[in-house]
Specification:
The protein has helices spanning 7-11, 273-285, and strands spanning 22-28, 30-34, 37-43, 54-65, 72-78, 81-89, 92-96, 101-104, 109-113, 118-123, 129-139, 150-154, 159-162, 165-171, 173-174, 177-178, 188-194, 197-202, 208-215, 218-220, 223-225, 229-235, 239-244, 248-255, 263-265, 268-270. The chain has 317 residues and is mainly beta. A hairpin with a 2-residue loop joins β25 (263-265) and β26. It binds manganese (II) ion.
Amino acid sequence: MSGPVGAEDVERPIPSGPPPGAVVEILASREATVGAFPVRRALPQRGRRTVGAWCFADHLGPGTVTAEQGLGIGPHPHLGLHTLTWLLAGEALHRDSLGSEQVIRPGQLNLMTAGHGIAHSEEGTGWAGPVHGVQLWIAQPSATRDGGAAFEHHPELPRVELDAAVVTVLVGGLAGARAPTRCDTHLVGADVQLRAGRTVLPVSDHWEHALVVLEGAVVVDGAPVVPGHLAYLGVGRDELPLDVPDTARTLLLGGPPFPERLLMWWNYVAREPAEISAAHADWLEGGPRFGTVASPLERIVTGPPPWPAERSRHPAG
Ligand code: MN
C-alpha cells in the first residue's frame, strides 16, 4: 500500500483513534480464592506482569458473607510491597505485626507498607451481607523496599465530578485532586463511577495505564471491557475517553513503566531468589523480621519456593 501521495490521500481525513503506543489489550483474569472468598486476579498476567508499580490486582466478589462463612485470612508475611484495600461493599478487620487493628468500610482505604517485612491478617467483623472490593499490590522501589513497615488508614479520599463520572482518587493525582496516600513511585489509582455517556480522563502520556472494570461495561477505543478482565491501554495517551452505555464502575491504574525486574513468589516481591528464600526462612522460623499478629486465626505457611535451595547460610564444620 505504498506509492506516491496523491491529492486523494491528502484530502482524506486523518482517522481518529488511539495515539501511537496506545493499545487495548483485553486479558482475562484468573479465578482464584482468598481464604474461602472468590476473587478474579487481573494482575499479574503471563504477558503483563506490571502496570507502573502495580503488580497484583484481585477483584473480590461481589459475593456474600454470612456469620458462619466470613472473610478470614490468617497471619501471613509480605515483603517489598504495599497492599491497598478498597471496598465497594462489606467490612473487614485488618490486624498487623505493628499492632494496627483497623476496620475498613466502603469509601475507606487501607495501605500497608511491607518494606523489609510485615505480617497481617484480614478478618471478618461479624458483619454479614454483600462483599465487593479490591486488593492491590504496589511494588516498592529499591530506595524503600528494605525500609520500615508501616500502615495507614484513610477514612476519606478526594472525589471529583468529571463529565459523566465521579472519580475517587485512591493514590496519586487525577483531574486536579490528589490522594493523601503514601506512594514511593509516580502512580495513579482511581475508582471511577460512570453514568451513561462519555467521560474523558486526563492522564499522563509518559505513563502506562490499565482498567479493571468492577461493574457494568466500559468501552475504550471501541472495545467493550467488562468485569473479569484487565484492559491494558499502553503508553502515550494524554486523555482516556471512556464510553458507557449504562452505568459502570472501573478502577484506573497507571504509572511510569516499572524500571526494575521484579521477582514475585507467594506474598513476597523482590529482585533475587535469595532474598525471597531468606524472607521465607524467617517466616517459617517465626523470627523477629515479621513479628506477630494478635489474630485468632491460624498462621499461614506454604512453600518452599520453586527454585533449588540455597547452600546453608550456616554451613556445618
Ligand atoms: Mn496480605
